[in-house]
Amino acid sequence: MKKFHVLNWTLFILHLIFVYSLEAQEQLRPSKADKPPIIDGKLDDLIWQNALSVSEFKTFAPDFGKDGTEHTIAYAAYDSENLYFAFRCYDREPAKIKSSVSSRDNIISDDWVCINLDSFNDHQSLYAFYINPLGIQADSRFAAGQEDFSADFVWYSAGKLTPDGYNIEISIPLKSIRYAGGNPVTMSVFFERFISRFSEHDSFPELDPAKGMAFLTQMSPLIYDDLKKTTLFELLPAFTYSRKYNLNQNQLVKYEDKGEISLTAKYGITSDLILDGTYNPDFSQIEADAGQVDVNLRYALYYPEKRPFFLEGNDIYNLAATQSSVVDPIISLVHTRTIVNPLTGIKLSGKIGTKSTIAAMYAMDELPQDESVIYGDYAHVPILRFKQALWGDSYIGGIFTGRETKNSNNNVLGIDGNIRLTEASTIEWNGLYSSSKFVTGPDKKYGHALGLNYNYDSRNLSYDFSAKDISEDFNVETGFITRTGIFGLTGLIRPKIYPASSKIQRIDLEAFSAQTKDKPSSLWETYNYFSATGFFLGSYNARVKYSYSTEIFGGEKFRTGGLQFIVGGLVSNVISFSVGYKRTNAIYYSQDPFQGYSNQINAIMIYQISENVESYSSFIFSDFYRESNSELIYEYPIFRERLTYQHNKYLFFRGVIEYNKYKQQLLTDFLVSFTYVPGTVMHIGYGSLYLKNEWNQYENRYTESQNFNEANRGFFFKMSYLWRN
């Protein structure tokens, strides 16, 4: 009983410390405008003469607490329906500013500024609005230590290069974000600037080196008076049309010719609670996915979500103590790409009160015809998530996921939480329970997953320890999990060294160890590595990593360690590159696995041919040799070239050519894309697949050819329009 009282008093004292530290933060009061600015990047509107401004930017990468290499001023203002921000970014070498007229979310290697906005001031999550010097946007949601760039919001920006740097103007409609009601409304902000040629991140407010990268608890409160209360209502109708051809002997024959209509609606019950509904949500692929090595895999490849209906509030599903190390098999408990062909869906997400967050969703997934005989026509998918904020960025939460068909079901129930113990350390945990009924057996199977993670991060040192226990029968049909039936312990330590040299900014040393028991075989495997990463000459970085590791597969233990090198950086403001090479021991995953070794190469070069034209070249190579006799099992090289002409921020033309030598296939893909705002878009695409085979009429079959012949052809058209009240 005494121990319980000590724990309660300890948590209470920690709570008071965090409340006091938050109250001590400087409060910012943006000025209210009578007339909105023209978003053109000129900063000549009257609003900016009277706006709140901050200029005490300090670095937090590659080191903390130094004056920014270049001077930055950030401004904040608002009216009853919009938040306005601006930046004046000075630069003594403006010719070295890296920027381009690019597509959305393709600017992270440029110079940029960012508005990190915690719209509830609850230290649980934030919106990030990135803008490069020419006004091109990227945006994301950050929660539970994970940043998701698949989110797209409706906001407006402009940038303008000047003789002494560049200017940025931003307008964020209140209808595009979720925020607490009341008057005044308190949000919080973290202004950020990135200078690419120095790999330098500057910020206001300044980050405390003792707290490391825990910026959710170090943001400056923003106080807004008299924001207008409006009811959000959106409709997003979309039309897609596709026509596809397959090779039949020597003729391309049409096998698909169809159009589809979808509708998504959004209604704001309050400013912080949103109801979404959808019918036949669109998932037309506007461009072929970049090729990946898809042979000899232990688990499936991961692809992100793109459908607007599923993106609203998606960050709420992030679970504590997942993705806690490089060997953590739980990637996500809610991966909505598992809902492949939804016919309809409804979702409620947002805040209930000041501390409680909820996300509830139901979707009806139409099953393929070959599965419907066994499972019925539909799978029903309910998901419920609840989070209760505590102090700082601490919270406790619960989750339920389900998937049910005519003859099978899967349900998962769990709790998770994050507690900030000190300014620099947190402890995260989760406990999950699953029950599953399969077509193949009459009995249900039950499983569990337990996760615990301790993390410490400061300027000079970071370390991390985790424990994971997952039973063999743990099953999550709504998530993405790479492995079950393991118990593991991990530890990582990362000292950071700051040499007294103008050429080397920082050196990160890293030692990691994971010891994992494979429950089916009762054998232990290990994964250990030591690495050194150097940041030098402004924008360059290089890493060398040596690992000693083993892996259990099919009840056998195999060696998987090796050596890895990576180097990359900006050669100039128009050329950047990254090259990596890895030589490791490896497993051939099959019913009869065997020991081998592998070489892997990943190389990327980005060349900004002009302000509007970008060349993105990549090369991927992987091979595998049987160790016993050095027999080559496969070689898998992929060459890809993507050339983009961005006419302006709305319209681009893109061509892709990809050669996969392993599959002996050539892919061409052409796309014209117009995006006014996310939701209001038009895409026209045309692609072909060429194979090295031809129809042999004498043998009545396809035989190998020396030339590429067109085997598939496809055309699609997509148009959607976002209507907002």
Per CATH, what is the topology of the largest domain?
Answer: Immunoglobulin-like
Distance between the termini: 58 Å
Average predicted confidence as pLDDT: 92
Q: Proportion of β residues?
A: over 45%
Largest sheet: number of strands, sense, barrel closure = 24 strands, antiparallel, barrel
Q: What percent of residues adopt helix (DSSP H or I)?
A: under 10%
CATH class of the largest domain: Mainly Beta
| Rg calc | 27 Å
Structural account:
The chain is built from 4 helices and 42 strands. The protein has a 24-stranded antiparallel barrel. It has 3 domains: 202 residues, Immunoglobulin-like; 192 residues, Porin, CATH 2.40.160; 146 residues, no CATH class. The termini are far apart. The N terminus is likely disordered. With 725 residues, it is mainly beta. 5% of the residues lie in helices and 57% in strands. It is globular and about 80 Å long.
Topology:
Elements: H1 2-23, E1 31-32, H2 46-50, E2 52-54, E3 58-61, E4 72-78, E5 82-90, E6 112-118, E7 125-131, E8 137-143, E9 146-148, E10 156-162, E11 165-173, E12 185-195, E13 200-204, E14 220-224, E15 233-248, E16 251-270, E17 273-279, H3 308-311, E18 330-332, E19 342-352, E20 356-366, H4 369-375, E21 378-389, E22 395-404, E23 409-420, E24 425-437, E25 444-457, E26 461-470, E27 480-481, E28 486-497, E29 504-518, E30 523-536, E31 540-553, E32 556-559, E33 562-570, E34 575-588, E35 594-608, E36 613-626, E37 632-646, E38 651-660, E39 665-677, E40 680-696, E41 701-720, E42 723-724
Parallel strand pairs: 1-4
Antiparallel strand pairs: 2-4, 3-13, 4-5, 5-11, 6-7, 6-12, 7-8, 8-9, 10-11, 12-13, 12-14, 15-16, 15-41, 15-42, 16-17, 17-19, 18-27, 19-20, 20-21, 21-22, 22-23, 23-24, 24-25, 25-26, 26-28, 28-29, 29-30, 30-31, 31-32, 31-33, 33-34, 34-35, 35-36, 36-37, 37-38, 38-39, 39-40, 40-41
